[in-house]
Amino acid sequence: MLAAVFKRPREVEIERVEVPEPKPDEVLVRVLYNGICGTDLRVWEGTHWMVEGWPLEPGAYGHESVGEVASVGSRVEGLKAGDKVVGFGGKSFAQYSLAKDPILVADSALERLALVSPLSNALNIASLVGPRPGGKVLVMGQGTIGLFVTKLLSERGVEVIATDVVDRRLRLSKKFGAKAYDARDPEYAAKIVEENGEIESVVECAGSERTLAPACDVVAPAGTIVIYGCQQTMPLPYKPLRRKGVRIEFGTASTNPRTGIDYTLLAVRMLQRDSLYAEDVISEKITLQELPEVLAGFDRERWIKVVVEPNRE
Ligand SMILES: [Zn+2]
């Protein structure tokens, strides 16, 4: 089979490797769709916290995958060849991938199920924010997860203020229910406070260390900042945090660490019921062969979610 191999930072090659063999409790899945995540872009750069050595194993870390069961291990029950599944392993920038306990899904809307992982993360973030209807939340960064957080909160009657540095994402954030501010404007944090007053929660989904200082300026006394995207060591401005008594939390992936609730199944159901503007979020579909070039020239002005189809020629 063909698989992408991340050799070292900024170097990915498509190689022919052995199809992996499922263990008794594993399922071999033919990958139909796999979304490129912000994680993958950081892995490509060599700056992601999860990377512990190079090269990565074939297909890693591609994890936003939808596929078709090819074969099942001897102890697997309830799944057979041809079944469609989501929620499997982390090596899906490849034609085949191994899965443990994947989620069986109906044979429809498969493409948008590549958004299950970002939507489950957004549901978890929304649960961490614990928003009040009528309350105000600032969502910094309007990539796939940020846009979904915006949509989920605004549908619950929360006033969402969103920031980004890309025009297309700012436009979409309005469609998803936010009042949008351009973070390229050096005065944006001051404008947000001036025009909206106190904001009780701030969510960082931009993956940028530059968001922390404005987040501390904007958040209300006794407010919460949820840091989700950025991963570097960040100096905390003590004064505003201390003066206001701010709580800082770090988001996990799809499972709320306090309640233990995993939002993956809910994300599957929501995406099967409703497109959730998936057509706006999935901006490009590519073959596996195109992946190295797309990672090297990832165009944030044009693309939000790019989905790889590893078995398309
Ligand atoms: Zn992801």
Itemize the secondary structure elements and their pairings.
Layout (H helix, E strand, L loop, with lengths): L1 E7 L2 E6 L10 E9 L2 H8 L18 E9 L11 E3 L9 E4 L3 E3 L10 H14 L6 E5 L3 H12 L3 E6 L2 H9 L2 E5 L5 H9 L2 E6 L7 H7 E9 L10 H7 L2 E4 L13 H10 L4 H4 E6 L3 H6 L8 E5 L4
Parallel strand pairs: 8-9, 8-11, 9-10, 11-12, 12-13, 14-15
Antiparallel strand pairs: 1-2, 3-4, 3-6, 3-15, 4-5, 5-7
Bound molecules: zinc ion.
Query: Which spans of ≥5 residues are poorly predicted at pLDDT below 50?
Result: none
Structural class: alpha/beta
Query: Mind describing the biggest β-sheet?
Result: 7 strands, mixed
Tally of strands? 15
What is the straight-line distance between the termini? 13 Å
Bound molecules: zinc ion
Number of domains: 2
Q: Which percent band covers the strand fraction?
A: 25-35%
Radius of gyration, taken over Cα atoms and rounded to an integer in Å: 20 Å
Shape summary: globular
Pattern of helices and strands: EEEHEEEEHEHEHEHEHEHEHHEHE
The CATH superfamily title of the largest domain: Medium-chain alcohol dehydrogenases, catalytic domain
- Number of helices, counting only DSSP H or I runs of 4 residues or more: 10
Task: Provide structural commentary.
Strands 3, 4, 5, 6, 7, 14 and 15 form a 7-stranded mixed sheet that branches. Strands 10-9-8-11-12-13 form a 6-stranded parallel sheet, with helices on both faces. It is 27% helix and 28% strand. Helix 2 crosses helix 3. The mean pLDDT is 94. The longest helix has 14 residues, at 116-129. Strand 9, helix 4 (167-175) and strand 10 (178-182) form a beta-alpha-beta unit. The two termini are 13 Å apart. It has helices at residues 38-45, 116-129, 144-155, 167-175, 188-196, 212-218, 238-244, 264-273, 278-281, 291-296, and strands at residues 2-8, 11-16, 27-35, 64-72, 84-86, 96-99, 103-105, 136-140, 159-164, 178-182, 199-204, 219-227, 247-250, 282-287, 305-309. It has 2 domains: 2-109 and 275-309, Medium-chain alcohol dehydrogenases, catalytic domain (Quinone Oxidoreductase, Chain A, domain 1, Alpha-Beta Complex); 118-250, 3-Layer(aba) Sandwich (Rossmann fold). The protein contains 10 helices and 15 strands. The chain is α/β, with parallel strands linked by helices and 313 residues long. It is globular and about 60 Å long. Zinc ion binds next to helix 2.
